[in-house]
Write a structure and sequence with these properties.
about 45% helix; about 210 residues; alpha/beta
């Protein structure tokens, strides 16, 4: 009787995983991809930010200007309370920067699958915002203690813009640095063709490392 063989894991990345990968250099890239592969194989991983995102979306949808954010700290599990306490002030600052609560609405975004060469990357904004003047933004949140690097900002915004027809038609991609309450938008002098070539090279290297880690 032949022993069953395991199905090889196809290289795959989320937007968060890929942008964290491009931010790394040298041997840390291989270590990071190896970790992603093991996590995928074990189907492990937990998102501690779920209730936070839900509260922020509620404040936008119900025009409450931050009351849901203020209250979520008290209902989250005690182990996550320090994290939420660190996130709420910056998120509230960003929320207020959008203008009058009644002038914004929550917009539904959809996930998309980007192909960078042969590497599938899941494009998954957290939500969309629609302004009274008709402008729309597809929002991805950055929760880390350190601000997003220029490389991760460019990679995130470029990949979101690349698939905006599927994500939220006619919207502008925005990466919000939650802890600092700052919204990053694509620089006016960005060169999409150069960014595309750079990301294609990063994706090819990601696939190679993934295969080596098998």
């Amino acid at each position: 009787m032949t022993a069953p063989t395991s199905t090889p894991l196809t290289p795959y990345a989320t937007l968060l995983g890929f942008t964290r990968y491009v931010d790394r250099t040298g041997p840390t890239k291989a270590t990071f991809v190896g970790g992603l592969r093991k996590q995928r194989a074990s189907r492990s991983g937990f998102n501690p930010h779920g209730q936070f995102v839900k509260a922020l979306k509620a404040d936008i949808a119900f025009h409450t200007g931050g009351t849901h954010l203020a209250g979520v700290v008290d209902v989250v599990k005690p182990r996550w309370r320090p994290l939420y306490q660190a996130l709420v002030p910056g998120a509230t600052t960003w929320l207020h920067s959008l203008g009058e609560p009644a002038a914004i609405d929550l917009a539904q975004t959809r996930d998309a699958l980007a192909m960078l060469g042969d590497l599938p990357v899941k494009i998954n904004p957290h939500f969309g915002v629609r302004h009274a003047d008709g402008r729309a933004e597809a929002v991805r949140l950055h929760f880390d203690e350190t601000p997003p690097s220029e490389e991760s900002v460019l990679a995130t915004l470029h990949l979101m813009a690349r698939h905006m027809d599927a994500v939220l038609p006619h919207a502008e991609p925005v990466l919000v640095d939650v802890r600092r309450g700052h919204a990053h938008r694509m620089p006016t002098d960005a060169k999409p063709d150069q960014i595309e070539r750079w990301l294609a090279g990063e994706a090819a290297a990601f696939r190679a490392i993934w295969s080596t880690a098998a």
